């Protein structure tokens, strides 16, 4: 089929829908840590644990949403259900902030709202990403560019969100947080409405057929694959998956100490569940007997890269956790007589992404025409290296400063600039890679597995944020002593730098495993 120069109109509808969903998510995220600490009076370590558990589960439930879409609902219905569920969740956060003086009620409403946000995101997230790839033929070279355009939609939403929600919610008065959450709710409703009205007109494949409809028993792509497993075998695999996850969760929940072990004394059950799922689900998929040897090898590449991506997002997601504390307490935010809200810093990264994404797309195109474009695994390694350099930059900015002394905005701004360049090397390339390597019949589920690595990373990010130094305290992480901000930031330098080096070394082998992709 001859490819036209432009992109399908459906791409821009998905762009707008994702933009409003990201507006909703990042608007809430810009305020969430500050709301817990300043309105609900959580200590920072507890707030970090809640943040990590929430963001971890947000990226865990796409496994469920991807499975239901592949087997029953299709992408379209899943997206609409997910969007409306998230809108209700944001409204419950609004109610929580309305009653923040009644701590018990406010906490109850907050956790109910978080639960609905987690569930709704599970239906929304993997399905909208999968639909981008389905707008194109398998050999269409516009797909990488399409995912980059789609990723810009993500960042348009996350640019506007902290500015709007921070303006009305991060005023320094706890009673105003509710307006930020309400703005997030309205954004989600707008996204759902636009998608519902226009989806039938624009969400179509290259052949003009609707994309994202409920699946038939066998798709055309499945006819060329080995015979599908019987119902009994599918049941056995589901049982193995559930039982394996439960057993491994219990093992992670055992509290080992000097006197032996105690059963689940102070267990982080959510963390145990996330880490167990991150092992069992990928293991269950890759042992599916319907997969060919080539398919297993390509899925293996996804798993290896997803493992390294964990270290990227665990460090990167400090933006919504420890770096929010740093912006609020340790950064001089005065511009003339105006003090910029701390939430505004979370717009810096998406503004830079929207600005730099076309530049990076042009760079890859320029290098590609000359046979110099790095492979996808090598781009991921470059992204990790730049993340490490961002933390090294800010570590020098806070080295030897006295407690309570605020530093210039230049340091946090520079960190976000370097991290943005790293993200552009890693994130959009990863989405495209997962789509190209995944078997068609597992496409949404494999996108869920990709987000599963982000789930583990976000939970890990919350754990690491809990080590943010308080005055007069010394913490230890795997023997590494954290006494001040310099120590804290250098932890991320070592972690992401080591991951970058290892991935760079093995990138050639991974590229060979991918073969002609």
Automatic annotation (TrEMBL):
Keywords, in A-Z order: Cell membrane, Membrane, Peptide transport, Protein transport, Transmembrane, Transmembrane helix, Transport
Start and end residues of each stretch annotated as Disordered: 214-234
CDD domains: MFS_DtpA_like (cd17346)
Transmembrane annotation, as ranges: 23-42, 48-68, 80-99, 105-124, 145-169, 181-198, 238-257, 269-287, 299-316, 348-368, 380-398, 410-435, 447-468, 488-506
Bilayer disposition of the protein: Multi-pass membrane protein
Entries under Pfam families matching the protein: PTR2
Polar residues bias (residue ranges): 217-234
Subcellular location: Cell membrane
NCBIfam families: yjdL_sub1_fam
PANTHER family for the chain: PROTON-DEPENDENT OLIGOPEPTIDE FAMILY TRANSPORT PROTEIN, RESISTANCE PROTEIN MDTM, PUTATIVE-RELATED-RELATED
Name of the protein in question: Peptide MFS transporter
Species, as recorded: Phocaeicola acetigenes
